[in-house]
Design a protein that fits this description.
By secondary structure, the chain is mainly alpha-helical. It is 75% helix and 1% strand. A hairpin with a 2-residue loop joins strand 1 (107-108) and strand 2. A two-stranded antiparallel ribbon has the order 1-2. The chain is built from 16 helices and 2 strands. The longest helix has 31 residues, at 131-161. The chain starts with 14 loop residues before the first helix and ends with a helix. It has a single domain, classed as Farnesyl Diphosphate Synthase. It holds the Pfam family polyprenyl_synt. Keywords: Magnesium, Metal-binding, Transferase. One of its GO terms (molecular function) is metal ion binding. This is Polyprenyl synthetase family protein. Its cofactor is Mg(2+).
Length: 369
């Protein structure tokens, strides 16, 4: 554990907590070095990328796991609980590596995305073939390696805690759900825009959000952390489920808003990147449902253009606002936030855990990055 880290429910995402997670990840990756060196020097840049990509970030999933444990009376200062929580960031970075490749994103957290780093490695090494091919293959394999490492780090921790069964089942479920949710998202990107009507697109976007984001970001980390304390009473399980679904949905809706209206200097992603990628988010589904005629045709012409410039981004933003979609998303964020916080009163949760989960809900809903 990082020196000086004291879990504080009033600051569940404190600098001390983030540093403690980083210490766990750095120590774990240091432990992988001898194995990779024994395989060959070709893996040196792979480990270096793993280190770089796991540095920083909001640490939301580890925080939900740690404070889910505290919410059922567990000790959030237990180093094995911290290690289990930190494993979720290895899983998250693996998803980001694959997500950036799927979306063709150039940057992540203000730095080159993994596939772009492999392309640069190819360009600087004088190798045969194309940088694009190495970028694609390298990102797939790095993402896979990070998934396997997340499993290894989690299993070590839960076995030391002596309660592996339910926690590992929840982790397996989480990995399956987020992968299937990602596939639902990919299918949504290639499906005809008018298939089943505009409201069908809205319904599909909600389904993607629940499986790709809400359960993965909040519900399963919460439940996993709680399971590290042993079997849960039904009322507690239901409270965490309701809180996780509502707060997780609101988190993703905020992400949708930031993907179009966010400040590039804060988000670390180019302004309007979701528009260029043509991401079929709930924000865009609601915008299409709220537009007609020339406005709808113009939005369709702008979204999905890789060369969309600042003026095009501004025009698309204006159309989305005019459709009422931004207002609807902000209302949904507030509504889900209220329902999530209300759920905390129904599970007989420990006070420190309840306070921390309230703070985490506010951080997830009102973030700017």
């Amino acid at each position: 554990m990082a020196a000086g880290f004291l879990p504080d429910p009033a600051e569940p995402l404190s600098a001390g907590f983030r540093a403690a997670v980083q210490t766990v990840l750095t120590t774990f990756l240091d432990g992988q070095r001898p194995l990779l060196e024994g395989i060959g020097p070709e893996l040196d840049p792979v480990l270096a990328m793993a280190r770089s990509l796991t540095a920083g970030g909001k640490r939301l999933r580890p925080a939900f796991c740690l404070w889910g444990h505290a919410a059922v009376g567990g000790d959030p200062g237990d180093p094995d609980v911290l290690a289990a929580a930190a494993s979720l960031d290895l899983l998250h970075v693996s998803a980001l590596v694959h997500d950036d490749l799927i979306d063709g994103s150039d940057t992540r957290r203000g730095q080159p995305a993994a596939h772009r780093r492999f392309e640069a490695l190819h360009a600087g090494s004088g190798w045969r073939g194309t940088g694009t091919a190495l970028g694609q293959a390298g990102a797939v394999l790095l993402g896979d390696l990070l998934v396997m490492w997340s499993v290894e780090l989690l299993e070590r921790a839960v076995l030391r805690l002596g309660r592996p069964h339910e926690a590992l089942q929840l982790a397996q479920l989480m990995r399956t759900e987020v992968t299937c949710g990602q596939y639902l998202d990919v299918v949504a990107q290639v499906s005809p825009l008018r298939e089943g009507g505009d409201r069908a697109a809205v319904d599909r976007a909600h389904r993607v959000v629940e499986h790709k984001s809400a359960r993965y970001t909040v519900t399963r980390p919460l439940q996993l952390g709680a399971a590290l304390s042993g079997p849960l009473p039904a009322a507690t399980r239901e409270a965490l489920q309701q809180y996780g679904s509502h707060v997780g949905r609101a988190f993703q809706f905020r992400d949708d808003v930031l993907g179009v209206f966010g400040d590039e200097a804060v988000t670390g992603k180019p302004a309007g990147d979701d528009l260029r990628e043509g991401k079929q988010t709930l924000l865009l589904a609601e915008a299409r449902a709220g537009l007609a005629g020339a406005g709808l045709a113009r939005l369709d012409a702008l979204v999905g253009r890789p060369d969309l410039d600042a003026d095009g981004v501004a025009e698309a933003r204006d159309l989305i606002e005019a459709s009422g979609a931004l207002t609807r998303l902000e209302t949904l964020i507030e509504d889900h936030g209220r329902q999530g916080l209300a759920a905390l009163s129904g599970g007989a949760l420990a006070e420190d855990g309840r306070v921390a989960l309230e703070q985490l809900a506010h951080a997830a809903l009102r973030r700017s990055s």
